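re: that chain from earlier
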Amino acid sequence: MPWLSTPSHLRWLEAEGDRLLEFSRAARHPAGGFAWLDVAGRPQLDRPVELWITCRMTHVFALGHLMGRPGCGSLADHGVHALQKRFRDPEYSGWYASVDASGPVSRDKTAYEHAFVVLAASSAVAAGVTGASALLDEALDVLLNRFWDDDKGLVVEQWDESFSTLDDYRGVNANMHTVEALLSAADVRGDRSLVDRALTIVTHVVHDFARSNKWRLPEHFDRDWNFLPDYNVDAPAHPFRPFGATIGHWLEWARLTLHLRAALGDDEAPSWLLDDARNLFDAAVREGWAVDGTEGFVYTVDWEGQPVVRERMHWAAAEATATAAALWSVTGESMYEDWYQRWWDSIATSFLDRELGSWWHELDPQNRPSGVIWNGKPDSYHILQATLIPRLPLSPMLATALRQGMLA
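^ sequence. v structure.
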């Protein structure tokens, strides 16, 4: 019997989500925002506080509040306050990527983090957090007026503090999270134009870049969107910009493509959205899963599909289950449910840390806890979503679906 249709499995997902929320509560930083957690869940208060972690955890606790988990609402409020005050640049607008007790650690403004501000604010609006609506208005204004490139239909990557000098690098990762942010904001604002922008990004990245490169999604480009195949060849294990193609992103793009398809509706969604999601999924399985003889998704492959960095990332495993669930809900095909079961079985025996809590964020090629790319357990964004996506429709996005009582 398919797990995805059994109440007992849905109860297991709910219990796992509650376990993750409980572990994550310790991330509340007394000075504002959310701290990096070590492997035992202890906040690293001497480290700079990262904008992307604060945004992700604000989103997570907004979801927890919408699920009726006591205490999550005050944590979401704590996150919104940090985004309004501690991270915000009152002079030039936008948000700093990291801060410490002295102020900004890095003054550049990056699309990746700003997309997460939109996501956090959107989820907080759905959760009814005070001040979230104004935060979302400002975040959308910055994202669309500073980072959106009308000519290309994609977001640029990085400005200096005053938004006067634009870096030449262009990246797909920031555009991926922009799609998620735009779809989430579209739900809470009822703004169809945001869905149209998401479609423009997916058309470029998935239907052009990935499809024309045998589904090995190019990640790094120059200012004119010319592919840079050797980018970071000397830093292949970079946590955000690794050399080669990132397997987990193929799965994440496939899932977001399905969310977009659902948001557009059957009458307006291009037929290629489902076809491309299938192709990305198939490529991730073919070139990423257990390709070195051991269960797990390798981190990256080269442009011939050969493994480069063989460490296993927790977020890739989480995205695999979520994408398999999404494809099963759309197609009803048993192969996706089969993969879903297999990957949760693998996660249960490798990533789940029953002793210290949460999931190991990285495993080595033999599926032992590792720290080549990530140390500690800094956030629960991907893994909490993996417990929710099988229990929710593909549209609206998570926070709005929870607000509307759609959780199974």
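The chain has a mean pLDDT of 98.
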